[in-house]
Structures
1.
Amino acid sequence: MRFLSEEREEKRFGFHLRQAKQKPLPFKKFTVDIATLLAEQLPKDASLQVMFENYPLKTFRQAMNETEKDTQRMTEQVEAKEKMNRQKELVRDMGKRFESDEVIYRTSIGFVATGKESKAKLFDVFNTIATTMNDSNRLKRRRNKRAVQLYPRVPEKILLTGSELANLVHLPQLASDKLPEETKKMIPHNVSGIGSLPNNVMNNPTDLALGVMQHPVIKDRKVFIQGMFIGEHFVVTGNTGSGKSTVLNTLINEGFLAPFIASDGKPTPGLTFIDPARDTAITFFNWILRAETLGATIPWEKVHYFKLAHGKYPIGINLLGRIEGVTVDAQADAISEIIENVFENKAEVAARLLRFCIKTLLADEEVVHTILEVPRLVDDEDYREELLGRLNAAEYYDLLNYWENDAEENIKTSATALKNRIDLFSTSSSMKRIFGQQENHLEVKRYMEEGHFVFFDASNLGAKEINIFSSYVSYLYYRISETRNIGANLHLLAIDEAHRVGDVFILPKIIAESRKFGFSLGISTQRLAQLSKELRDTLTEVQNNFFVCRQGSKDSKVAADNIGTDLVKPILLEKLEKREVVVKYPFVYPNGVEEQQRFMVKVPPLDKYQPDGRVADFGNKELIASVDAWTAERAEKLSEDREYLTSEKVDKEIYHYLNGIVPKTKKSPVKRETEPELPIKQPESIPKESTEPTEEEKSRSLFGA
């Protein structure tokens, strides 16, 4: 502000305000915000100065008492009756000033402007203030060229309560539609419901760096969140382009990748990451490569990257591989539910037939079966009788009874519906290669205990395929986690773009039950509303870690409800800038007291790196594409070095197995990835050098006779 005392006095015009009546009579309380109108009326080279200081309440009450005594004396004078009534009204008005706890301020109000043309405008300013505040007492003006001073005193005595002074001095009503947007931007203010973090909260550089606190005055205040709570599940949400993926990457990099890279091979918290869009998984793997380029020693035996669709080395995940500690009934029910869940039109008989088929194949203690054998079990009676003959009649009486009494009728009515469900696996080359292998390549228990990093690139899979894959992997991890000790090494299952994954029935159970076994869940999604109601409710009631980026108008209320609508309004979440995130996250003070914090930060942008470690310019699309291709090639090399079968060999093995050309594998413990691949012995009738199916083989049905 430039004080006009710097100008020559003869060029100035100004005045002070004073109260018309010296008695402590009231002015109007604040009801209408006139700040915008005053800003418009003030001349360009003008100043408005409001000074105030506390006024002794005792002195003010003495003045009130004197007025009351005057009123009592008037009651003795009959001729002063009319004046007495008016005096009583004034006493009553004075009493209204103290209906609530009020503070009295001795106030001075002054105006100064330069130039003759400003004189009329200052009168308009005075009239606006007087009209707004005049009541039992009134404001008057007195000319004074020095009404505004750099080091002022309080020359005039206008006594105002806090409610009356608020007409001129108050926090701006930023939510008012009458306050212009340009004016709002000029006023430093915190976002509604979002305060600044105290200096001793989330300021420890040894914690996880999240970003820079967003504050109108405090700049460059870095925020560090305590890593212990990442293991208590978390949710990141935001619409397209909001910076949601950047927030997720920052959390995982700071909480998991950075400690892993710096671990020098020692156990650290591990990560399994499911990415329907590929880019985030590629970014993580790119960061590991860059760390190695900069000299870090990467324990590559703990890093796994699986491309699910059209990968050169397809991972084997056998749905019918027995899970440690899980009964045949429980596993059959889970797999049936996973498959049935992707079909909108429910078929109860087909679902029952599928469940019994899966249970029958699981119950075979001699042979490892795959989901691709379900149609053969239904169609081939000889195959079915042979399999049933290997079952323990006492243990699986219900199975034998079903096939003897109910199966025939169920097959007549629902065989087609059943096969439609298995078509998800047999007609998709990617799904067939993954779920048609007899082996399970996933060593989940080892991944968890040793702190491995497992990336699943699910790009180019269909919606149903992504859902089945994600559901089974989540279920597998959930069941394996139950076999771990309480307080075991933390392992995070993170699902990016969870809205594309669909309804995964086991996720609410993971949130509710698995944390004590060192297994937690991180979810990133565009819209919370796209998640199942059970999952949303569990996320809200069981965990408290929310990272909310910009929301659409339909989703802002849902997101605000999870943070607390008493603190954060939906409109705030709709106006967030890119990479701005409203956070709800706990903090533990040194004395052990835990307190929930709500704040807003801006996370730094992400980079990808070239083979030489230099940053790849995101604006250069060709360069980014080449960096992604190089990263994917290095990821594929992991599977090649571990001697996984190529997709061509996997196709041939599945074909031979389903057609009875290769002896069926007996059940044995899942082998470790570091063990050498054992060659499958070919029958004597098939030359070992043969690599293509014979004409006789091609003529056979894929599922037998």
2.
Amino acid sequence: MAALVGLFLAATGVVALASPQAVAATCTAGTTSDFNGDGVGDTVIADPGATVNGAKKAGLVRVILGGGKGVSEISQATSGMPAMPEAGDGFGTSYAAYDADGDGCSDLVVGTPYEDVAKDGKNLVDAGAIYIIHGTPTGIGAGSTIEGYAQAEFNPTSATEAYDWFGYALKAGTTASGAPYLVIGVPGEGVTVSGTTYPHAGCIEYAQGTTKLALSQDSAGVSGVPEEDDRFGYSLAGTNRYFAVGSPGEAIGDEAFAGGVAVFSHTLSNGMPTPLLGLDQNSTGIPGVAESGDGFGTSISMTGNRLSDQTYNSDVLLAIGMPGEDVGTLADAGGVAVVRVQPSGAYTLVAGRRPGDLVCDRGGSGLPGTKGPEARAVSEVADGVMNAFLESLGRLRSSLVREFPEFSSLATVLAGGRSGELARAGRTSEGVSYTVHGRGCRMTGPDGAEVDTDLLPDGCEAFDLWRLEAFARSRGSVSEPIGADLLISARELVNRGVLHEPRDGWFCLAEQRRVS
């Protein structure tokens, strides 16, 4: 995959994120997602798995102008785009609309979290990028001013790094005071605290007016602490007064991937948005209890709430999805909690959980999966991904161990990385590369297939659904995540004695269980 270079240079001139308000006479402000400023709302349809100029899963978005005024197709092949379509970029994985430059026409922000970025002669895989395509009175797309940013170009106090997934989630709008704001999820960000870096702890980049900063669970007042795989910034929601950040990988006590959500006010205090509260399933009044694999905060949505005695939407309603929630005897049936949040940070449960739409009987498994006649086709895809992952794990490990004896086990790899006897990144003569991170190692084959495993406390070399989905994307197996079906495939292999599930949602080869 070719690397993205020089993102900051806009093709037709750079427009600052918070340039002076100067509403053009030909644009009518006040309508949400109105890219040509005619007072009629427009519709955005994203297709991050689309093939563009032969590049599979490069991605694109289409903008349907209201009032029958046409359709614009926007991709990295669009004239004026400071990048080119590349396989697996995922342009359109996320998007948001707001009036960034104050001209009355909405502007479109598109996330491309799997964009590779060139830096200091290195190719930073899946560092991520965003693009801001400015609306005009004649429409949006070719002819628009287009800006592209990697993380360090958006916020010079941050760093652009491999596997950060900058732009995985986006939220934008206008605050109650009239300032444009943009929130960017960076769930793969490693957060360093007291000299220790926690891979995939996650962060967000926040911009309001001229203020730009990164926020993580290490920021003052933000709930929780950075931990590996928290994935803070995986999901985002917001209104003109509040915004929320999901961290579905958050561990609650010993319950891994139980999940959490942090809520903020856009009101700036000490140069940053004001943290209001943190929520998880152990919070007072939230239904259920925090359990491994619940994924509380995997998806979130927010809307203003005006009380009968108020003249404005002083409060907010926040819906929190938990797709891994067990309901009765139904595994991973899913659930949702809706809470009302007040300006003080006080909250009240409005609606509790109910069984979601994930559950069906796939071949009598009683586990979640795709419904309807397409279930078997989807399950076959998931089974293929699962089998390919295990085959690649063995093949890549064998290639590495021939030149690096430490790869006889992940424990010796990590020990070698810590002692300096093994470089933290390397490559074999057969074209297999590796990167040691935190408590794990990522191996990449000559074909681009990525296998990532972690060492669990019991000594198992394990992987989870996130890593299986990343493997599937790296080899072009699927255009959309198929986590529920991958879970079924993995647990079917557990039942057959091929895999062991040492903790909920994490798997390793069964032979490791016998050795340990």
